[in-house]
Amino acid sequence: VLFDYHNSSIRTRRLENGTDHCASGGKRFALHDLMEGLRQPANSVADQLVADGGRHKYIYAVSEDQQVNVAVDGIRGTPDAVKHESLFRNAPVLAAGELIITQGVVTHVNDHSGSYRTSNAMNDDPSYAAVVLASFEAEGVSFTAEERERLRALAER
Amino acid sequence: MITQLSSAVLEALNSDVDEAVTIAQGIDACDLGLVLFQTVAVANAELVPVRRLTALYFAQVLLGRAESISAECATAAILALEPFLRSEVPHERQTVSIIAGLISRRFERFPLDLDESAWKLLPRLRSLRESLATASR
Q1: Smallest CA–CA separation between B98 and chain A, in Å?
Q2: Going edge to edge, which strands form the sheet with A55-63?
Q3: In 3-state terms, what secondary structure has residue A142?
Q4: Is B91 helix (H, G, I), strand (E, B) or coil?
Q5: What average pLDDT is seen over chain A?
Q6: A24 — alpha (psi -120 to 50), left (phi > 0) or beta?
Q7: Are B71 and B109 in contact (CB under 8 A)?
Q8: What is the ipTM for the molecules in this complex?
Q9: Which residues are CB-contacts of B22 (< 8 A; sequence separation ≥ 6)?
């Protein structure tokens, strides 16, 4: 099931308030490029990371063709902040949420996105976790054993 | 307590939907069921589309802590969702479908805990998802 933001009343209100970030000029990355950047600290992608003892928190979205884009979460309403709707320029998505990468390994993925209203969708629909697992792994992501098992269990209910 | 609960719902309604998770986390577990019912009831009565959708999403977020929600409050919330079976807004239908799915999972092991009328309504609310692929395009 696709999650739509573009046609929602929430976007309409944000447009009125000037807090829609569809056209944000902030940095966003393909997940594959981010993982490569983490493996090569001199890579320009790595320069965009928010360092916290090797632990980084990002927002992500999975497009209809299962591409994954990520960014450092911005503050809504501030110039060039990147929010979930920025990741695919308002296009509908299969999944969205937050991920934590520690030392180049994904340690946690969730489904928290107000824009796409996906919170708890992972607990409701097994296909949500399946999409996250498949699309992340297709991008060359490594999970911790615990996190991969958690996602797999959710996907196979 | 009622004033406190109303404040939580009101805060969610008047916030950007991004804030729903934070607000939901701040609600005491023992109040959760009542807030869920109250939120759905507010969504049902709300005339402004964005506030209606925000309230529904807030209920969806609350259900992440569903272990704390009683059968009585879940029953009340489910029955309050019935009018959304006729909603023509795809986003509302999707959110209601997820809420129904989450409640189903919470009570699937203990179906007798729910009022019978609510238990019968759940599959109808759940099936709203089936029309989404077409409606969202």
Answers
A1: 6
A2: A29-30, A68-71, A55-63, A93-102, A105-109
A3: coil
A4: helix
A5: 90
A6: beta
A7: no
A8: 0.89
A9: none
The separation between the first and the last C-alpha atoms of chain B, rounded to the nearest angstrom, is 43
- Whole-angstrom distance, CA of residue A3 vs CA of residue A14: 17
Window 20-39 of B, Cβ < 8 Å to A: 20-21
pTM: 0.91
The verdict on A83 touching B (C-beta cutoff 8 Å) is: yes
pLDDT tens per residue across span A95-139: 999 998 887 889 999 999 999 999 999 999 999 999 999 999 999
* Nearest C-alpha neighbor of B100 from the set B90, B89, B80, A138: B80
For tokens 């009125």, name the residue.
A16
Residue B1 is predicted with a pLDDT of 45
Q: For residue A3, give Cα distances in angstroms to B46, B68, B94, B136.
A: 23, 27, 8, 8
* Spatial distance between the Cα atoms of B105 and A156, rounded to a whole number of angstroms: 15
Reported as type and span, the H/E element at residue A68 is: strand A68-71
Secondary structure element (H or E) that encloses residue A100, with its range:
strand A93-102
Q: Which amino acid is at B132?
A: L
Chain A residues with CB-CB distance to B21 below 8 A: 112, 114, 119
Query: Long-range contacts made by residues B133-136, C-beta under 8 angstroms, separation at least 24?
Result: B133/A1, B133/A2, B135/B90, B135/B93, B136/A2, B136/A4, B136/A7, B136/A92, B136/B90, B136/B94
